Amino acid sequence: MCSGTSLFYEYLINSGYLDKNNNLIYEFSELTRKYDTWEWKTKYNDEVPHKLTLLFDSVGCEGYIKLMYEKLCRNDDKFQFNELEEMLIDNKISQVQEKLKNYSNKIHYKEILGLTAGIVFIDYEYRNDLAEYFRQGNYDMDFGMFIAMDYGTVSYRNIKEDVNVRLIAEAMGGKGHDKAAASPISNLQLEKIIEILSENKN
């Protein structure tokens, strides 16, 4: 299973822009691929890829690029976090857990295409963590439908293993993978969002 980062890494290697013997850059590419494909959880049980994402969310895109550039320019044999980065990650973990707990108290259940959806209004960055939170908690839903108004998107994540959310996203004008997909928020969905909120108030 590939990711954008691993494909770009292969291009750089094959084009002679990177030294294929640079283990540090390869490891960074592989850690990113593991998170993007979710193999860090399903195959390797490796927390480092998840920590990388938490660090990204903690320092933002520009800060992350700066940190990783400086780290990858060093002549280290192994990818590792320094003390400051570990502190930022730990703080982010606490913040994420608090957010997930709050989100779990604001679920709107709705039948969509014959399946039970757990609909939650979220900040975009928490979509994957919330899906895993629901899976581990055995929440009574087939898939999560996470509405991120800050990004103008709806993310779909399967909670039950046999549910293909790509089909759901395609029905909503989106696309994606079997376990993770997304669609833009359409005018029709905005009407549905208002309807759902109105029903909840009643």
User: What is the straight-line distance between the termini?
Assistant: 46 Å
Envelope shape: globular
Quick one: CATH class of the largest domain?
Answer: Alpha Beta
Instruction: Sketch the major β-sheet.
Output: 6 strands, mixed
Q: How many strands appear in the DSSP assignment? A: 6
CATH topology label of the largest domain: Diaminopimelate Epimerase, Chain A, domain 1
Q: Which CATH architecture of the largest domain would you pick?
A: Roll
Mean pLDDT: 92
* Backbone CA Rg: 19 Å
Structure, described:
- Strands 1-2-3-4-6-5 form a 6-stranded mixed sheet.
- It is built from 8 helices and 6 strands.
- It folds into 2 domains: 4-98, no CATH class; 106-201, Diaminopimelate Epimerase, Chain A, domain 1 (Roll), CATH 3.10.310.30.
- It is an alpha+beta fold.
- The radius of gyration is 19 Å and the shape is globular.
- The N and C termini lie far apart (46 Å).
- Helix content is 53%, strand content 15%.
- A hairpin with a 4-residue loop joins β3 (143-148) and β4.
- The mean pLDDT is 92.
Brief overview:
The chain is of the alpha+beta class. The chain has helices at 4-14, 23-36, 39-42, 48-72, 83-104, 127-136, 165-171, 187-201, and strands spanning 108-112, 115-121, 143-148, 153-158, 175-176, 180-184. The chain has a 6-stranded mixed β-sheet.
